[in-house]
Structure formats: structure tokens, C-alpha cells
């Protein structure tokens, strides 16, 4: 495990990554995570999805998530419901809720994802 520190990170220093289950240029930067800061209770990422990019439908046993859309437009699937999400929308996802997001717009979909705790049980 990485040593815990108080850190200041510059977003340009963190590489874009495409995590498992993410497709079509669904990229994220892990700004606060165990591997980048040693955090134990929070994972904070910025994500940018090109048109048609998506994360597959999935569920977390114990994690809560917040998505905050910064720019663009997409479809958010939560349980059996599909909703259009746009700039300034904030989505809370409770543990045990199946969910997915995809860029259905014309430009990039950019959003923050905050997850706590970091690991599923």
C-alpha cells in the first residue's frame, strides 16, 4: 500500500487511462486514489468520454458514487431507468444499484466521479 500523504496534484501530471469495462475512448484520470495518493476512503477521478464511449453496466456492493457532469451530454442508466444527463447534473448512486453511463451526445462528455470507500467487499 502507498504511504498516505497530503498532496497537491496537477491534472496534467496524471495520465489518461481506459479502465476495464470502459469502451470507445472512455478515459479517466485517477487524481485521488490509493495508487496516486494513498487514499483509503475516497477515489476521485475526472473522466472524458468521446461520442459513443461508455462504461458497461455494473454494480458496487458497498461503494457509493457521485457523478458530476461538467460538460457534454449522455445517457445514465440507473436500475431500469435511463435518463439524459447534462452539464451541472449530479447523480448519486447507492450501493447495490446497477448503473452505466454512455456519451450519446455530439461532443465529449466530461464528468467527475467520486467513489467511497475505495474497495468493494
Plain-language structure description:
- This protein has 121 residues and is mainly beta.
- The chain has one domain (15-116): Jelly Rolls, CATH 2.60.120.10.
- The chain is built from one helix and ten strands; from the N terminus they run ββαββββββββ.
- It has one helix at 34-37, and strands spanning 22-23, 26-32, 43-49, 54-58, 64-71, 73-78, 81-86, 90-93, 99-102, 109-116.
- Strands 1-4-9-6-7 form a five-stranded antiparallel beta sheet, with no helix packed on it. Strands 2-3-10-5-8 form a five-stranded antiparallel beta sheet.
- The longest helix is centred in the N-terminal third of the chain and has 4 residues, at 34-37.
- The mean pLDDT is 93.
- It comes from Sagittula salina.
- This is Cupin domain-containing protein.
- GO terms for molecular function: metal ion binding.
Task: Sum up the structure in keywords.
single chain, 47% strand, 121 residues, five-stranded antiparallel β-sheet, mainly beta, 3% helix, Jelly Rolls
Any chance you could write out the topology, listing elements then pairs?
Elements: E1 22-23, E2 26-32, H1 34-37, E3 43-49, E4 54-58, E5 64-71, E6 73-78, E7 81-86, E8 90-93, E9 99-102, E10 109-116
Brief rundown of the structure:
With 121 residues, this protein is mostly beta strands. The protein has one helix at residues 34-37, and strands at residues 22-23, 26-32, 43-49, 54-58, 64-71, 73-78, 81-86, 90-93, 99-102, 109-116.
**Average pLDDT, all residues:** 93
Q: Which value, in Å, is the CA radius of gyration?
A: 14 Å
Which sheet architecture does the biggest sheet show? Answer: 5 strands, antiparallel
- CATH-scheme architecture: Sandwich
DSSP helical segment count: 1
Secondary-structure element series: EEHEEEEEEEE
Give the CATH topology.
Answer: Jelly Rolls
Tally of strands: 10
Unreliable runs: none
CATH superfamily descriptor: Jelly Rolls
Structural class label: mainly beta
